[in-house]
């Protein structure tokens, strides 16, 4: 029987990053992914690395800022290109005559300044110099978060998977985990796949949106499927084909207006875009017809707001993806040992792209030492009813 220090269930960005840091601590690690690495939510993520959107959330803002810092540390070691990092920065664009949104964004800027976050306010006359292809007029100003990044998340995950292999770990794709291997005394000894039983001293479940169902399957307790405090939020994204040699936009851009739009320079050479209201369309009724209608709406908004957007570009030229985002019930991460267990750990979060370096590192330290890092105290499962 093959034996490992840690088995990680889930080959998305959170599972792979956790396994990477465990391997750096000298652990013999196996990662088990039901399909192919980083092809589900990780591949269908907007992949904007930021803490500015969490400015008012105290400790959670700091956790996200630590995630961003973690990417910069990895870039110092490996370089940005192998990791799929683009240090592009981000703009929140707002109309000055929209009193409510303008005031809210100015408040966010003030909060970020108090936290010494790399941010600046951009006046209307300066915006065309930052983004010459955006159809600005004098009524716009912007919050500029110049330290933020975007990520080719599948490339990042595959790169770290190779680092795990270099350290002697194993990454298994197309491997379905069936259940935990539990002794007669109730101790978790490992897990069973369709092919074999693996011994593991500790197990980490990092199954994203499938976490509740996987907990039910692994433990044999069907109640987890309904009781685990996790919601699923679909996000629709449209990615254009390569539009080289024109780049048009340089940064992640959020239009703080109705209808909204967010857009970033994608590593394919095109753009990736989405909006909150189009997410709502497919959340209510996810049909092919609604996906195409929502995607068409995003293209029209981009055409209105970006100078030089190809007039002939249609949704038939683009790829339409839906990522099922795992969102804990209170909106912040879960990173804990399963109550009642000594060696079965769970990590699940929205903003997985931003948080993967810090959550992966902290979970590795937690599993290695058995002592919960101080930074993880707010993210225990025990904050939810039924898990005390």
Characteristic key phrases:
FAD/NAD(P)-binding domain, eight-stranded mixed beta sheet, 11 helices, globular
Describe this structure in words.
The model has no long low-confidence stretch (mean pLDDT 96). This protein starts with a strand and ends in a 19-residue tail after the last helix. Strands 1, 2, 9, 10, 11, 12, 18 and 19 form an eight-stranded mixed β-sheet that branches. An eight-stranded mixed β-sheet has the order 6-7-5-14-15-16-13-17, sandwiched between helices. Helix 1 runs parallel beside helix 11 and helix 2 crosses helix 11. It is an alpha+beta fold and 388 residues long. The chain has eleven helices and 19 strands. The protein folds into two domains: 174 residues, FAD/NAD(P)-binding domain; 148 residues, D-Amino Acid Oxidase, subunit A, domain 2 (D-Amino Acid Oxidase, Chain A, domain 2, 2-Layer Sandwich), CATH 3.30.9. Strand 15 and strand 16 form a beta hairpin. Helices cover 33% and strands 26% of the residues. The radius of gyration is 22 Å and the shape is globular.
Short description:
This protein is of the alpha+beta class and 388 residues long. 33% of the residues lie in helices and 26% in strands. Strands 1, 2, 9, 10, 11, 12, 18 and 19 form an eight-stranded mixed β-sheet that branches. Strands 6-7-5-14-15-16-13-17 form an eight-stranded mixed β-sheet, with helices on both faces. It has a three-stranded antiparallel β-sheet with strand order 3-8-4.
